[in-house]
Amino acid sequence: MREEIKKIKEESLTLIQSGLTRDELQELKVKVMGKKGSLTALLKQLGSLSSEERPLVGQIINEVRASLEQAWDEKMKELEEQALLKRLEEEFLDITLPGIMMPRGHQHPLTKVIEEIEDIFIGMGFQIAEGPEIETDYYNFEALNLPKDHPARDMQDTFFITEEILLRTQTSPVQIRTMEKLCPGLPVKIIAPGKVFRNDDDATHSPMFHQVEGLLVDRGVRMSDLKGILLTFSRQMFGEDRQIRLRPSFFPFTEPSAEVDVSCMLCGGKGCKLCKGTGWIEILGAGMVHPKVLEAGGYDSVQVTGFAFGMGVERIAMLKYGIEDMRLLFDNDLRFLAQF
């Protein structure tokens, strides 16, 4: 048996050093030291030896196993290092070669305009408020002085989900939710940017577009405060030489109400194609918050007053960048977007 052990050891060591691959080394280990390996088979035969010879032969087998495992581990490590070096040589990268220039991404023009509007109003002390895009009829209409039979509802072409659940047609519901949350605290001074939805789709309308609503509620708020805020906004957005004018209008949630125009940024008010010869361009709607809307938010309309305004971000972007078709803002045409 000792001769067999010696033979297995010598043959195995010779094979280990003979240039076998890693897979072949693994097969050799199983063949010699596995459950059915030649060395393991000799261990099973120890029972047939005398009691004096058995421990000596067992010790020899264990020593041979240990030496073979050490030789096998060293060879496997050597082969792995060789494989790594070969892979590194094959995957060599010449860092002196010129790189491939990747086009840089940038903000969408609507995102730029929204952030610019936010920065302007934050600079005037307003805070940003948000609300759900799927709204209830109460917050989208009734709390804003638009009862179910009000004819002004027909102007908004609403996407109804159920009779009481809808896609919001304006960000004005955020005003009611914010007043409810802050009441009776004063002042309430917020802007509410976000997506709104109406059943429109042409060169100047989209079924999904963006609005920014503004609200200021406090004691002694006047129409002149509203005009001052909007004049500051218009000059920071369109240029310091801009002027604004307020024309009487009607909105159910404000009284009095006004359409706000800005002097044409192309002709300076002289009259051109952009302003259709009038010298003025409509940019938003505004007015003093209706007493019923203040009361819906939890405030006493005798003690406090407020103003509100709302603008379409797409319209501001179209005027700011001279875009004639709103659909360009949503077509994802990189030739168009790269201009910004």
Automatic annotation (TrEMBL):
Domain Aminoacyl-transfer RNA synthetases class-II family profile intervals: 111-319
Co-factor binding comment: Binds 2 magnesium ions per tetramer.
Gene Ontology CC: one annotated term: cytoplasm
Needed cofactors: Mg(2+)
Main subcellular localisation: cytoplasm
Binding site for Mg(2+): E255
Top-level division of the source organism's lineage: Bacteria
A Gene Ontology molecular function term of the record: catalytic activity, acting on a protein
Alphabetical UniProt keywords: Aminoacyl-tRNA synthetase, ATP-binding, Cytoplasm, Ligase, Magnesium, Metal-binding, Nucleotide-binding, Protein biosynthesis
Any one GO biological process: phenylalanyl-tRNA aminoacylation
Pfam family, one: Phe_tRNA-synt_N
Entry's localization field: Cytoplasm
EC number: 6.1.1.20
Record field: catalytic activity: tRNA(Phe) + L-phenylalanine + ATP = L-phenylalanyl-tRNA(Phe) + AMP + diphosphate + H(+)
Similarity field: Belongs to the class-II aminoacyl-tRNA synthetase family. Phe-tRNA synthetase alpha subunit type 1 subfamily.
Subunit architecture: Tetramer of two alpha and two beta subunits.
Matches recorded under HAMAP family: Phe_tRNA_synth_alpha1
Protein name: Phenylalanine--tRNA ligase alpha subunit
Species this protein is from: Syntrophobotulus glycolicus (strain DSM 8271 / FlGlyR)
